[in-house]
Fold this sequence. Notes:
It comes from Nicotiana tabacum. This protein is mostly beta strands.
Amino acid sequence: MAAYSYALQVNKCSLQRPSLPHKIEHFSNPLSTSFKPLLRDLDQFPNISVDVTKAIKETSCKLLDAFVDFIFEFADQPLLPSQRNFAPVEEIGESTLSVTRVEGTIPDDFPEGVYIRNGPNPLFGGLKSTRSIFGESDHMWVEGEGMLHALYLKKNGRIRGSWNILYKNKHVQTDTYKMEKDRKKPGFLPAIEGDSPAVLLAYLLNVLRFGVIDKYLSNTNVFEHAKKYYSIAENHMPQEIDIHSLETLENWNVISGSWTRPFTSHPKKAPGTGELVVIGIDAQKPYFELGVISADGKKMVHKADLMFDRCTVCHEIGVTQRYNVIMNFPLTIDISRLVLGGSLMRFEENGYARIGIMPRYGDANSIKWFEVEPCCVFHIINCFEDNDEVVVRACRARQSVIPGPNSRVNHFEKWLKGRSSKDERIEFTKESTFPRVCEWRLNMKTGEVREKKNLSGDEFAMEFPLINEKFTGFRNKFAYLQVVESTEISGSGFTRFGGVAKLHFEEKRIPTEEEDELIKAEYHMLPQNTFCSGASFVPKPGGVDEDDGWIITFTHNENENISQVYIVDAKKFTNEPVAIITLPSRVPYGFHGAFMPLES
């Protein structure tokens, strides 16, 4: 979730230039432009001119670096004891580690493949804050360079029931990762959360020194398209990954530059065609664009500016057999608000919220909008068509946990009281920020909206939904969600998940006195002080039922400081895991995971 760096992209002041989504040439380095008359006089000596230009650029960068080192103090954001497994780990190197400890049995019909999960793994010790005479700026809890953790599962053909299991981790080597790695110290100033003057100056100095406003994180998700694998976060293009070595290959320059902005961490394959539906937001107009990429990944089939009047943070798009589902909710990015002393990103409690239903290859004029009660949705569970209605199921909260406080207690208290006089005071409570499963039924003929705000009850908050992806865009019976640990500090951002829930959308619990009957839910809760991340559904090869398969997830036992992978039979969901695989290295909590079956 790093949409804040969409605002501007400019050239670096060094000779080495990253691959940028777009460039704004007039934001050149003012230190170098003052030398233009001299450079014109040297044009008759081209070799000298090149050397002088290089020297001037290098000197400009050194002066800016010296200014940053003198004015700004970098400090690690401390983690509370309950947050110690959010701390980064080191790469294990080029080799893979053999895994030998397995409790239980991996089923014979479990597919061979790679279980891979993305997540933030900050360089140089952890998330940073900077302090200066201009104030303070901080990394948000969702920042930190992406690291992939992969578990390779391959059958041992010589011994029935035996598996060769390997583990590997590796940073996603984005352009900005390489810049900071080469410097061997923090360079980018935090540029989203903090005092307005500090954030604005961070923008300017990052642009002048590196050519971009903030780091390309690539820490949120992994996906496959046209038999290629990608790491993604919303502030840059995806990076293609070699799934076997975890090497970063190159930025996905989508269709030879026909898509000139980052896109969502959750692109969706369109039912029937296999085309990839993507969206991308920007802090300047056009605020919101949608694209459709061919199933073979070789051309942009369709692209449309949806003519939004604000930059709304939209983390995910939905698809049905015929439609795209657009969430336009009041978590917004506004540079002018920042300039006036407010926050760059803010949830506007009094702002409007609406859901748009758009034909697959439509434009802004073809969208049918449905007004809904203001809320925050990061993740869609699934969408499908049901006669005249489009059904949208999602994880809904009354408030947004992004941007949220970092881990320092005094900062958290300041957040609760209201960060700035320019910002509205926020009721930041567990009930308002932790999501519940909801459903909207949108009637395409009458325009009626039927909303159920809480299908699963108040026993647990849930997030990071997953389904059997064969049912994306179709009516589905089941969904699986990570269950928020009940003791979590509300709004801290560093949320732990103490289990996984299985929801039965077509079965009801025992009726209550409430107006809406709750759906049936089963829970697979983890042992005390054990938490999960990156859960994924693995369909059974040749399976008939929607829940023929397994849930696989990384877990960490905080009592013993041991990381494991659980495999749970989705049909026997409350039973003990069929297998628990103990890993040779700690795996920090992270974001989204996926299981990638691999061809032999």
